[in-house]
From TrEMBL:
The keyword Transport applies. The chain crosses the membrane at residues 44-65, 86-104, 139-162, 183-203, 215-234, 255-273, 304-323, 344-364, 370-391, 398-420. It is a multi-pass membrane protein. GO terms for molecular function: phosphate transmembrane transporter activity. This is Phosphate transporter. Its main location: membrane. It comes from Stutzerimonas stutzeri (Pseudomonas stutzeri). The keyword Manganese does not apply. Belongs to the inorganic phosphate transporter (PiT) (TC 2.A.20) family. It comes from the Bacteria. GO terms for cellular component: membrane. One of its GO terms (biological process) is phosphate ion transmembrane transport.
């Protein structure tokens, strides 16, 4: 274990720097999936979206990020097959590779999958730098399947939500009154869904553990509280006759704009809970190996330290604040024309899918999930409502991302080996 003993502190500092760089990339690129629909539908300005996302991305990452982090840390590669030295250098190279690719993609304005980036990077170093036996290939199957299944599920949920809005509100004799009647129920659903995952999974990381019944009861209470706050806000909205002359549903969309504040918060929370794993999963593995003095099998079973989740959460927030606006604008305005009622259906469907995946420890792509939701809404409105050229370019960026992460990881792994070994 002389390698770990000799360079332990230097490796830890570098790993933290690379993990922070990766988290910055997650915030700068992938946060568009959380806030793009809010900005595109004009429910929030870019500045407001960044403030909302900074708060709720941080809370999601810190409170509920540990479940998926375990999958990235242990589920993709076999920690017992890889020597401690190679585990440390490999996970560091994976972080640097994924962070580099995200920086390139963000500069180009490409909304790529951070999940693809880090998984490709981890597979790249393990398969080439160690052995193909080091990769849990059977664990890759469900992850790959999730890239197809989650957009479909999200699209179906979004389609259903959008059609329910059409039936209960839009296509009625008095859309405004019905909007004020039914939107609080959507608010309850939003609050309950996010709270349920948080109280049953996330709060373990802050020392509070609840059983199933207690979690459901608390989530129900939070959902009711969100609904009551929403009702109070909605009571201030009056019919705007002048705006309704220009656009018949202008007053109705104002009601949905209030709802979108709640769905934007839930979407940001869900995104932080799922995607912090991409940055801190490999970092947690490195920290575990170094702190255990090179015992990879002990590190594989160690809990994710709270400060590692905190580092990832802070990195996401800084990435969002400094460079997130670029991809937010791309997602929010170029896939399809969004209104608050359409954006709400896309955001709630995406948040529901991502939260469910995070709860069972499956790292899904928020990019894929959101695009699936927006496609579901586009199909509900007619295929002509979609900008198929933009959708096609997004699909192409998805195909490039995984091999790009793998190739960069192999290059950085080789460089780190040359420096330290």
């Amino acid at each position: 274990m002389s390698f770990i003993a000799e360079y332990g502190f230097v490796l830890l500092v570098l790993a933290c720097a690379f993990g922070f760089f990766m988290a910055w990339g997650v915030g700068a690129n992938d946060v568009a999936n959380a806030m793009g629909t809010s900005v595109g539908s004009r429910a929030l300005t870019i500045r407001q979206a960044i403030i909302v996302a900074m708060i709720f991305e941080f809370c999601g990452a810190y409170l509920a990020g540990g479940e998926v982090t375990e999958t990235i840390k242990n589920g993709i590669v076999d920690a017992e097959v890889i020597s401690p030295d190679l585990m440390v250098l490999g996970m560091m190279s994976a972080l640097l590779a994924a962070g580099t690719w995200l920086m390139i993609a963000t500069m180009k304005g490409w909304p790529v999958s951070t999940t693809h980036s880090i998984i490709g990077a981890v597979i790249g170093f393990a398969a080439v730098g160690v052995s193909t036996d080091a990769v849990h290939w059977d664990a890759i199957g469900p992850i790959v399947a999730s890239w197809v299944v989650t957009p479909m599920l999200s699209g179906i949920v979004a389609f259903g939500l959008f059609m329910s809005v059409q039936k209960l509100i839009i296509n009625t004799d008095d859309p405004f009154i019905n909007a004020k009647r039914f939107v609080p129920l959507y608010m309850f659903l939003t609050g309950f869904m996010v709270a349920l995952m948080t109280v049953t999974k996330g709060l373990k990381h802050v020392g509070l553990t609840l059983n199933g019944g207690q979690g459901i009861l608390l989530a129900f209470a939070i959902g009711v509280l969100v609904m009551l706050v929403g009702i109070a806000l909605l009571s201030r909205i009056k019919v705007d006759v002048e705006a309704d002359r220009t656009f018949h549903y202008a007053s109705v969309e104002k009601v949905f704009a209030v709802l979108m504040i709640f769905t934007a918060c839930s979407m940001a929370f869900a995104h932080g809970a799922n995607d912090v794993a991409n940055a801190v999963g490999p970092l947690a593995a490195v920290v575990g190996v170094i702190q255990s003095g090179g015992a990879a099998e002990i590190a594989a079973k160690s809990a994710v330290p709270g400060w590692v989740l905190l580092l990832g959460a802070v990195g996401i927030v800084i990435g969002l604040a400094t460079y997130g606006y670029k991809v937010i604008a791309t997602i929010g305005k170029e896939i399809t024309e969004l209104t608050p009622s359409r954006g709400f259906a896309a955001e709630l469907a995406t948040a529901t899918t991502v939260v469910g995946a995070s709860a069972i420890g499956l790292p899904v792509s928020t990019t894929h999930t959101l695009v699936g939701a927006v496609l579901g809404i586009g199909i509900a409105r007619g295929i002509g409502a979609l900008n198929l050229g933009v959708v096609g370019s997004i699909f192409m960026s998805w195909l490039i991302t995984l091999p790009a992460g793998a190739i960069l990881s192999i290059i950085f792994f080789t460089i780190l080996q040359a420096i330290f070994v």
